[in-house]
Design goal:
alpha/beta, three-stranded mixed sheet, about 210 residues
Length: about 210
């Protein structure tokens, strides 16, 4: 096995263990603050559309955030796994009770009750979309270690040419590292998110130091 692939696999196993070891109460309290920091941010306030992943297991809980997006009368967009194309399709969701379990037992939009959208087209038309990207680990430069399927790597690449999209990583401080490059966990095609939000800080990766 390629040493780089092996290193990524070992890192995923390690940080999954770190995440589990935090305990349910610590994760709950951290997530409340992270979500609060996000909804109070200018990125969220300016957004007409919010594209979320719908969390599962020990991920940062985005269920309450999805409900908040609807209450705030913003357009809620959620992904649906397209196994045939090994890709994500996106749907506009108006009622969370219509979500159904997908191929990975993660709740996702129902084709019957949600409207399929072209996420790039919507982002361009809205001129203000925020996309919340999942990750096991983020660093302070916006790079992430995902689950290895590559779904969101392709989405980030697709959206990189759209000027009106802000990409965000929600991350507990316990799984925030200084620099994934230094750990040799970043590939040439990896794209960083614009902002990383933890329970204590916000890192704007678009600001370049002179």
């Amino acid at each position: 096995m390629d040493s780089f692939v092996c290193a990524k696999r070992q890192a995923r196993m390690y940080y999954k263990d770190v995440r589990c070891a935090l305990g349910a109460q610590t994760r709950y309290e951290s997530d409340l603050q992270i979500i609060s920091n996000f909804v109070q941010s200018s990125i969220y306030h300016k957004a007409q559309s919010v594209c979320l992943y719908y969390s599962f297991a020990e991920e940062i809980d985005t269920h309450t955030l999805a409900a908040r997006v609807l209450v705030d009368q913003k357009q809620l967009i959620l992904p649906r796994v397209n196994k045939a194309c090994h890709n994500l399709d996106f749907y506009r969701v108006q009622d969370l009770s219509t979500l159904c379990k997908g191929p990975f037992d993660i709740l996702e939009p129902s084709c019957e009750f949600s409207n399929f959208i072209d996420i790039t087209h919507v982002a361009t038309c809205d001129k203000s979309m925020v996309v919340v990207v999942p990750g096991l680990v983020f660093d302070k430069f916006g790079y992430r270690l995902g689950y290895g399927a590559g779904y969101y790597d392709r989405i980030l690449d697709k959206l990189s040419c759209v000027a009106y999209v802000s990409t965000v990583g929600l991350c507990r401080v316990q799984t925030l590292v200084d620099d994934l490059h230094a750990l040799h966990l970043v590939e040439a095609h990896d794209r960083p998110v614009d902002v990383v939000i933890t329970q204590t800080s916000m890192y704007d990766t678009t600001i370049k130091l002179a």
